[in-house]
Request: fold
Amino acid sequence: MTEYELTCLGSGHRLPDSRNTILLGNAGAPQSALLRTEYQARRLQLLDADHGIYRFRDWLPLSRSLSGSSAPITYKSNGLARELGLNNLYVTFSGYWPERDALMLTGTFKECEAFSVCGRIPDDFPASLVVASAGNTARAFIHVCSQNRIPAVVVVPEKNLDAVWSPFPVHNCVTVVAAGDGADYSDAIDLAAMIASLDGYVAEGGARNVARRDGMGTTVLSAVTTIGRIPDYFFQAIGSGTGAIAAWEANRRFLADGRFGKTTMKLMLSQNAPFLLMYDSWRLRSRALVHCDEATEKAQINDIYAAVLSNRNPPYSVTGGLYDALCATDGEIFAVENHDARAAAQLFEDTEGIDIAEAAAVAVASLVAAVRDGSVEPDATIMLNITGGGMRRFAREQKTYAVAPRVVVSRAEAHPETVARLVMDAPDGARR
Reply:
């Protein structure tokens, strides 16, 4: 459906996409590097809103469209803007808010990723997707794959299972696997990699999947086409930083488009204290991540308000990753305490009229802090990316379905032979 090539950011080589696997990198690159999509359409032509996320299909790497998608919506804030003294604050909202035509039934912009990633692969794709998640991505992929009958294995830390539910009964083409023994998101990623190494399975790829990043980038496509110009500032909380990389890449495409100005958005990102891996690394302007020991980082993750902001191995150092995005945009990362995030969640609901997810509250708190310390001007055009919202409202108004894992894999079982046996016992519908 979409004409594009992939450019390796390490070598500059152009690569055609593959229909039989998910191309995640260039084996011939001199260093670890992301791929980036180069679309034949230099100018974005919007389709009608009833196309959902696919109204942006000119800049999505698609082989097909799927049913049931909804696009992010952007509106000019009144209540929060007035509270903060901002004249041009725009909210880009992903979630459930029917009055504003926001109908992401899992309440998160991760649906943008899932509809793009699954739209990249053809309907005769020969393998099952394997996806790792801290919670929100799991909900989105379970929903999209179940509704469109796409075989998938979704791996989630057992302690995060309370974030995993579905707006509809889940089809048996989807298998949920939990990583046990106090595993975190990085452990789930490792377990998912073991499963993806088995015959008949393929890694979705996370940040290395151009479809994931370009799907996330539709938040910026929504903002720019609604505002009529590229914003001066982009606010978002980060777990892996993939959404911020996607925002930078979307900004680059709009600069090439030429109709929306010449602004490079300043990335204003935030992490939830005490887990501040990328904040600490960027403060030192270090391309290499500045790690604590694993036990300390896991203890920090257990203490954060927004559990999904917990990736211990984010795409920060890789060529084309978050470090490069921050350098290119003269970006900042804020450290947000739990109590400030909780207060920001209440502030947003009071002033804008809808509940928001914990990660989005961290972003709101960083905006409050930036206004307080003078990091943004009152007349600046600001995009506040609310990556999830309306979930409490959805739970009040609609039926939801619990999603139980088919198996919990303990730390002792997390080796290839045992994982192969456990996964191969999955229902036939979950495998090709």
